[in-house]
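Thread amino acids onto this structure.
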């Protein structure tokens, strides 16, 4: 019904003006019609000549036009105030949609904008719900991460206070374990602080040209003991005899590769391998691929893989170590370089993490 009215926005003013002009026309001529017909002359003939005279019709037309414009202007102002009040209540400006310079009784515009507003608010509500769910999960995860080492440290200290401190061998053993718990707390807090600074843009990158092949070899050497312990081979897909120069922050990219390779070892299979491949991405960039043949990741977990503390294993098992912030840090470092990071994975087959880097600037 609103749409029908919006297509006939002059309908009310037109009918009202016609009614007023017609009524005024009759009222103006009724006295004259009465006087003439009192003499017994033909009523219909005299009435017709008076009602349809040029002067009478002209006067009625003038009355009609005046009434139409007055009523239409008043209607427009009334609708403008009412519709603008609706827009103000909905907290978005009506200036871009309605104005006094045109008819604002067009309900289609109102319906369309209210519909858009409703969709926007629904999207905002859904986003707030997701943010709230993420916040609860994040607080739960960080509480769990902090609780484990804190309780461990507290347990050893209480044992020492209960008398174990008198036994030098036991006290040294418990103090050593308590120290490990403190080190884990420090490690976790440092990662959180670093990630927060990355997100806020407080960490400046030291951008230079360097050989990515040399950097990867250095990471392989650092991870050699860990990889042998897990029986996972670290290798290139081929021999890279020539240097491949890229532009970036050497230390941060080393941190990215270290985190990715640590994860590939951690979730790899006994006797498996981690393969690193360097390829051309386009004229200005290369792409580094870190591929393993480990556990793999289910498709439903891929979108949340780079969230803080997100873990695929919901059992709460922390035997594989780590702060749960590694991939989130990786993502933010790559984004700070204004580059892209990708992940492909298949459950029980393996995963591939890849990221782009700009070629060296000469």
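Threaded sequence (362 positions):
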């Amino acid at each position: 019904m609103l749409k029908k009215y919006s297509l006939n926005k002059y309908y009310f003013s037109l009918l009202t003006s016609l009614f007023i002009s017609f009524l005024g026309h009759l009222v103006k001529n009724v006295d004259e019609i009465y006087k003439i017909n009192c003499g017994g002359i033909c009523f219909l003939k005299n009435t017709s000549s008076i009602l349809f005279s040029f002067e009478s019709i002209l006067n009625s037309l003038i009355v009609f036009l005046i009434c139409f414009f007055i009523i239409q202007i008043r209607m427009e102002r009334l609708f403008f105030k009412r519709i603008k009040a609706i827009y103000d209540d909905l907290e978005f400006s009506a200036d871009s949609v309605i104005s006094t310079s045109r008819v604002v009784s067009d309900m289609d515009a109102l319906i369309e904008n209210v519909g858009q507003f409703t969709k926007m608010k629904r999207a905002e509500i859904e986003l707030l719900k997701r943010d709230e769910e993420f916040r609860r999960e994040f607080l739960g995860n960080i509480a769990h991460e902090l609780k484990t080492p804190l309780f461990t440290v507290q347990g050893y200290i209480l044992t020492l206070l209960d008398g174990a401190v008198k036994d030098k061998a036991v006290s040294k053993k418990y103090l050593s374990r308590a120290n490990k718990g403190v080190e884990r707390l420090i490690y976790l807090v440092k990662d959180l602080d670093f990630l927060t600074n990355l997100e806020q843009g407080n960490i400046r990158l030291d951008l230079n040209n360097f050989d990515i092949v040399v950097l990867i070899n250095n990471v392989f050497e650092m991870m050699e003991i860990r990889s042998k312990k897990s029986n996972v081979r670290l290798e290139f897909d081929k021999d890279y005899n020539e240097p491949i120069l890229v532009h970036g922050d050497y230390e941060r990219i080393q941190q990215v590769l270290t985190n990715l390779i640590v994860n590939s070892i951690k979730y790899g299979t006994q006797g498996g391998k981690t393969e690193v491949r360097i390829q051309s991405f386009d004229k200005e960039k290369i792409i580094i691929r870190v591929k393993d043949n480990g556990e793999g990741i289910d498709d439903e977990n891929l979108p949340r893989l780079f969230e803080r503390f997100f873990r695929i294993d919901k059992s709460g098992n922390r035997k594989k170590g780590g702060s749960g912030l590694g991939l989130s840090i990786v993502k933010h470092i790559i984004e700070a370089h204004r580059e892209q990071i990708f992940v492909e994975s298949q459950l029980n087959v393996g995963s591939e993490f890849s990221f782009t880097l700009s070629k060296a600037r000469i």
